[in-house]
Each structure stands twice: as structure tokens, then as C-alpha cells.
Design brief:
single chain, mainly alpha, 9 helices, flat
Length: 159
């Protein structure tokens, strides 16, 4: 059922590529022009207690309630597949494998926090080079708009 729905909505992808391409281009040019200062404010959704929690159960709960946007479609597909299978064990195994794979890249950083130092140095190096981030957004915008205008997603559905 999910595949049939996806085939019916595949044309929406073209519009999404164009919309996000324009957003990426706008962000890239805003960064180049220096208009991104208002966007640099951190939005704190997590309660303050979670930010200083040393209890692994609280940290696990906080991480478990956070999902990257790119993982949401996969998660919903897994929930649908688990529902269709009718087996709680199958659903549990699929969700556990997904959660393990999603958090696996963070495991080395959790076990050995010193491994994050190169990432901190990279962030410090990039901070005065905001133009680099702007160039990345402009490149993504051009790529996304190109896909929206010149790529036919209908050919990908096999119909």
C-alpha cells in the first residue's frame, strides 16, 4: 500500500525539489550577504535538566525522542511494515535494528569523547569562513532546482 501511495505521489517530488532548491539558494545568498545573523540563534527545545543530565537513562530518553527529519519516512515505513506483518516480534526487531543503525555512528563519540576534538577544531575553523557554508547551500540549491526542472521522477517508479 505504501508503494502504491508513493507511486501516486511521486510527482510531488518535483515540486519539493524546486521549493527546497529555492530555500537553499536563499539561505546561501543570505549567508554570503551577511543577512544570516538573525538565523544564528539557538532554539532550545530540550529542558535544561536534560542538557546537564549525567544519568544514561535520561540521556537515552532525550536521544530517543529526537529523530532526524531524513529518518522520519523510514521510521513511518517500518511502523507500517510492522503493522502489516501482524507480528509484534517482527516489528520490534525491525525498529531495534533501525535504532541501532541510526545511533551507531555516535557510539565511538560516546565511549571516547576525545574523538570529537577534530570535529570541534573543524567547527572552530569554519566559524570565520561562513562563505563556505553559503557556497554549500548555493550548490545544493542549484542541484535541487536542476533536479526539479530536468529530471523526470516518473521514470523511477517502474510504471
Amino acid at each position: 500500500m505504501i508503494v502504491v501511495l508513493g507511486q501516486r505521489l511521486i510527482g510531488v517530488q518535483t515540486g519539493a525539489w524546486l521549493i527546497f532548491g529555492v530555500i537553499y539558494l536563499g539561505l546561501g545568498f543570505a549567508i554570503f550577504a551577511g543577512w544570516d545573523r538573525s538565523m544564528r540563534h539557538r532554539i532550545g527545545f530540550a529542558p535544561e535538566r536534560w542538557k546537564v543530565a549525567s544519568n544514561p537513562l535520561v540521556q537515552g530518553l532525550a536521544f530517543g525522542l529526537n529523530i532526524p527529519a531524513c529518518a522520519a519516512p523510514i521510521l513511518f515505513g517500518l511502523m507500517g511494515a510492522a503493522t502489516v506483518s501482524g507480528s509484534a516480534l517482527t516489528g520490534f526487531v525491525m525498529m531495534a535494528a533501525f535504532a541501532f543503525a541510526l545511533s551507531l555512528p555516535l557510539l565511538p563519540l560516546s565511549v571516547v569523547p576525545g574523538l570529537a576534538r577534530p570535529l570541534d577544531r573543524l567547527a572552530d575553523w569554519l566559524r570565520p569562513r561562513r562563505w563556505f557554508l553559503g557556497a554549500i547551500f548555493i550548490g545544493l540549491g542549484i542541484w535541487s532546482v536542476w533536479f526539479g526542472l530536468f529530471v523526470e521522477p516518473v521514470n523511477w517508479s517502474g510504471t
